[in-house]
Amino acid sequence: MRNFRSGLILAAAAFFAFAGTAANAQNYEYRSGSREFCSNNNYSSGERKGFSEVREFSLPASGKLSVDGGKNGGIAVKGGDVGGIQVRACVNTWGTTEAAARAAAEGIRISTGDVIRAEGTPSDSGWGVSFMITLPRNTDLNLVAKNGGIAISNVSGDLEFETVNGGVALSDVSGDVRGRTTNGGISVVLGGSSWIGNGLDVETTNGGISLKLPQNFAANIEGRTVNGGFKSDIPELNVTTEDVKGEWGRGSRAKSVNTSINGGGAPIKVRTTNGGVKISTIDEAR
Question: Looking at residue 26, what is its pLDDT?
Fold first, then answer.
């Protein structure tokens, strides 16, 4: 059971690393069937054999999309100048033999109704399905996962998301964006000179937060950590509660900042309980 659980965690981590790392969440590629997107290597061991395959679906755009990653799946969504929704589902299964793993995959169905999700039949084999989706930029999202990361890039709308064990990567998003993870870090990379929409509100319990934005970005920034360091390249943001300077990687008292920069604007809120907060500037033409 311990090896089985470790395989799930490693697989979720591998998917998130591809879907969007802390540095370049916006640069992940869509390569159907590629080893980076769909590989069962992390599910295979001496006692368990893995099987993986990519399934593709095309759906009409409706202005909103809901995705449930299930127990063992991550979700990556990228917006663009497209007319419909392209879904790539990576089906990973594992069992005591290769035949058992392949048979488990045959029993998995991908639902593309009101909520995109995978459904499987009970067996002695395990399985997980991760989703990589391209869609029109102006789309509302509702994304849910349990053991898997969530990445959203170049999407504007009402964006809601939640995962339990997995990191979150956001890049060039706008609108009303709200989400959290329990065990995982959060990376936010913003572009332009100000936020378009109501604002951003993201939170993690166990994990660090990286917020990168152009030097001239206008917003009201709220950052907070309870157990962790606080560091900022922007002097106005490098302050903490209790008038105590936060040291990156050290400190036990809550540290927070809530102030306007470059004239103020929409609220940008990033919070963690156990982890550091790092705010840095980037070249807008990155």
Answer: 30
